[in-house]
Amino acid sequence: MEKTILSVKNLKTYFFTKRGIVKAVDGVDFDLLKSECLCLVGESGCGKTVTALSILGLIDTPPGRIVDGEIYYDDINLLKCPREQVRHIRGKEIAMIFQDAQSALNPVFTIGDQIAEQIKLHLGANNREAKARTVSLLEEVGIPSPEEAADYYPHQLSGGMKQRAMIAMSLSCDPQILIADEPTTAVDVTIKAQILDIFQQLKETRQMSLLFITHELGVVSEIGDRMVVMYAGKLAETATVAELLNNPKHPYTAGLIRCLPDMTQVKDRLESIPGIVPSLIDPPGGCLFHPRCDKALAICSQEEPPPVTVDGEHTVYCHLYSH
Amino acid sequence: MKHKLLEVKNLKKYYPVTGGLLSRHLGDVKAVDGVSFYIEEGEALGLVGESGCGKSTLGRVILRLEEPTEGEIIYRSTDITKLNKRGLRELRKEMQMIFQDPQSFLDPRMTVGQSIGEALLIHGMKDDKEREQRVTEILERVGLEAQHALRYPHEFSSGQRQRIGIGRALTLNPKLIIADEPVSALDVSIQAQILNLMLDLREEFGLAYLFIAHDLSVIRHVSHRVAIMYLGKIVELATKDEIFQNPLHPYTEALLSAIPDMRQKKKTRILLPGSVPSPLNPPPGCRFHTRCHRVLPVCHQEEPNLKDIGGEHLVACHLYGA
Amino acid sequence: MTSYVSRSLTRYYWERARRNRLAVGGLAFILFLILLALIGPFFTVDPTAANFEEKNMPPLGFTIEESVYDLETQQFTTKSITGMRQHPLGTDNKGRDLLAMIISGARISLLVGLFATGIAVALGTLIGTVSAYLGGWTDQILMRFTDIMMTFPFFLLFVLIVFIFGPSLLIIVLVIGLTGWTGTARLIRSETLSLRTREFVMASKALGASDSRIILAHLVPNVISLIIVIATLSIPGVILAEAALSFIGLGDPSVTSWGMVLRAGQQNLDIAWWVAVAPGIMLFLTVLAFNFMGDGLRDAFDPRSAV
After folding, report:
1. A297: containing domain
2. What pLDDT digit, counting tens, does each position of A103-155 carry?
């Protein structure tokens, strides 16, 4: 049984706006084990990015605020920690890759300088050591001619290369956990394949835990060990990837899977989930998915569904299973 | 016997690059470099390629939103590259476009009704009541409501905005719609809704589509035939089934193997080394040879032509004697 | 189910602008100024009415000591003068009521500000949008023309015109307006350039819209917020320009503007400080008010500061 390296309990992050309180994350629990890849899955607005930012303390306050919950990294509650300690953990122990490589890299510094800076800051290395480490990192992520590449500016790199540079930067201090926010979403199919390959490699060679945020189920099936499905700020279902994709229990997850254009057989019409995601300021009562659910029961509009464990590690938040 | 609605012959679009003190002509970005294909009435042709291959440019040039550098675009027997201003305006009633970015393709300062009704206003429907009626008709046809005409784009979700965009394209009853990555920016469950809508509309109105995308699984769902584009040229063109079951060009193979598919565990995946070369200076010979896993010596020297190797399966590759 | 109220973009921006207290304060002051300019003249005396009996009177509530040379006794005696209710802000060295002059000045400043800025911004917007949208040679020619106008010595031109035609308010407004559009043109042009590539412009073109329709119905409305901000932030500059010109004597002598009052007050700063201080404070507050309001509007229009 692998050790739990990150434990999120009942996390609630709200944004206080003039229009009302946006409950971006409203009671989310999950555990991340050592050396595993946990995928946080959901469509836009479901709260997955906000969850990741909450873990790292990157929520803009105001207007956002973590109003409840605990985040344990190795027995330390990150939410009750002094700022200094969190800053030390962020970047060194827990690193994050953002979705848009373009804006995460500083255009006026070479990528070598940017990576070396991280190394010097967190590990206290001198210039020579930092440079050597930088080159080996660039090589690890598959950038050709890493010695020369270190002197390139971000604009001189292609999209795929920038993505790799960002991954290298996040690895610079040998983090225990890497949070990747939709790293394969904005890239071409062939680059996507390359990036997924890198992550696969990293998982194997570094024994690092990966919290992989995405909305693409195909990507999840390739790289994920376990997955957590979110909807409108709450959890819908949690299980191993194989189990959940073959045997989805929650109507939303099942609907998502059915929506995908199938590569193996052509259908006349794609199945879709009618309606749109509810407003997070004024959500419907009970289960947030009930207005779009074709299996909704009377109780669904009144009470929020409690978690139910079906089959070992497979947990569903749905009234269909709670009786 | 279906008629050819649109035929493109050897279409090129170059963007000149100037530099130096006297603005000398240094070269050209060959965004579209000799593309030929046709679309029949009511047919959907999928155009697939990665960023920088020229597919969006091709779409814009066909609509003459940008002027072609060379080549012919024949719509129903008229070469539309030679049309004057008046002819062009009439052409707008035949061909329309759906765009990619829901945050950007609607004027934020105009109501939805004004955006959809603009085409009608431009083409002479001056009567407000008449326009209002037609706008309502269209809104309902794309799955929205009449009262939405009074609202502004920022009040809608991405999926709803795309419905509005599609509605706008339909106002003039076009026969051909060029869809430039219409679902790339949408969530999966919404993608499905929009794709279904587009399929329904095609049946109802007998529309032809040029469906531009980078996602092969989406293309498979909506197209009859598929064209694969790389660095300004079409490298393979065949029926959907042929492309997916019998891909010939190495690039097509790589694209297919790159798709993360949850239903089949990927055994071997073809990883293309490096990245797409610059269209300013494409490699000599076959443009794909620098990354090709089945490259032959001749590929470094001669460019292969797009050839029909049987059953209307066209491919530009020396492996097939092109 | 929430009831839905459709909100136009304008109302949305207004609600955001409302929250900025400095901006609202600025707006309040400007409204007060407008009120003053419109109604004030009905309640005060003629600002040009000289009354030497009552010259150099201090404002209400102030008392000054004035030394007067008594011809009979051949000595300096000090006389104390106290402000009167008839002249709440005091009088200048010709006995003209300062309050009336300030009110008249408010009217002039607002008129000049409004019209000169109006001309400058309208011209700048036209040149900016056309230049950006049509591009190519049109853009080059218009921008080189803008560069030339930018370096043009507006002041020398002004002196020359005054020399030929004599000073007048109309000339001030026209010269400021016809030379002050260059900054606006540049800003509007760059905004239009970025708008031009937005997909809705392409969509409009695809529907068959003519160039003029795209410029007028799509581009201009989308730069309106920028225009409003530019105009609001230009007005103080214009008002100060007019004040400066009047101060050095090139203003229209037939109207009483703040610059003119400053000019009169400057000469007697030691014995009648209020004559210079009053217009000085008014200019300061007016400039501040427009700047606060302009900043508030700019923040309200910026989508990135939205929550």
Report:
1. 4-93+175-321
2. 778 889 999 999 998 888 878 888 888 899 999 999 888 888 888 889 999 88
Residue B84: Cβ within 10 Å count? 7
Q: Which of C6, C207, C210 sits opposite B119 (nearest CB)?
A: C207
Mean per-residue pLDDT of chain A: 86
Continuous H helices in chain B: 55-62, 85-91, 112-122, 128-141, 158-170, 188-205, 216-222, 240-245, 250-258
**Domain edges within chain C:** 9-56+91-305
DSSP one-letter string for B212-234 = EES-HHHHHHH-SEEEEEETTEE
Domain extent at residue B277: 4-87+178-184+209-320
Q: Is the domain of A160 the same as that of A83?
A: no
ipTM of the complex: 0.86
Identify all chain C residues contacting B107, using CB atoms and an 8 Å cutoff.
200, 204, 218, 221-222
3-state helix, strand, coil in chain C (%, to 5): 70, 5, 25
Same domain? A39 vs A127 = no
Q: Which CATH class is domain C9-56+91-305?
A: mainly alpha
Q: What is the dihedral of CA B276, B279, B281, B287, to 10 degrees?
A: 60
Residues A83 and A109 in one domain: no
pLDDT tens digits, residue range B62-85? Answer: 999 999 999 999 999 889 988 888
What per-residue confidence (pLDDT) applies to C114? 92
The answer to whether residue B286 scores a pLDDT higher than 70 is yes
Mapped to the 3 state alphabet, what secondary structure does C12-47 carry?
A: HHHHHHCCCHHHHHHHHHHHHHHHHHHHHHHHCCCC
Give, for A136, the enclosing helix (H) or strand (E).
Answer: helix A127-140
Which residues in chain C have their CB less than 8 angstroms from residue A15's CB? 307
Yes or no, beta carbons of C222 and B108 under 8 Å apart = yes
- Whether cis (ω within 30° of 0) applies to the bond prior to B304 is no
Cβ–Cβ < 8 Å for C237, C183: no
The pLDDT, as a whole number, for residue B32 is 93
* A116 within 8 A of A93, measured Cβ to Cβ: no
Q: Give the pLDDT band (50/70/90) at residue C4.
A: very low
pLDDT value of residue C128: 93
CA distances to A97, A126, A141, A160, B52 from A152, rounded to whole Å, are 20, 21, 16, 14, 22
Residue C3's pLDDT is 32
Q: Quick check: C204 and B60 CB within 8 A?
A: no
Instruction: Give the distance from residue A308's alpha carbon to the nearest chain B alpha carbon, in angstroms.
Output: 25
The type of residue at A16 is F
DSSP, residue by residue, A187-216: S-HHHHHHHHHHHHHHHHHH--EEEEEES-
B268 part of a folded domain: yes
Amino acid at B243: I
User: How does pLDDT run across C255-285, given as a tens digit for each residue?
Assistant: 888 998 888 888 888 878 888 888 999 999 9
CATH number at residue B267: 3.40.50.300
Q: Inspect the interface and report whether the beta carbons of B150 and C6 lie closer than 8 Å.
A: yes
Q: Which residues of A touch C2 (CB under 8 A)?
A: 279, 282
* Contacts with A63 from chain C: Cβ below 8 Å: 307
pLDDT of residue C8: 61
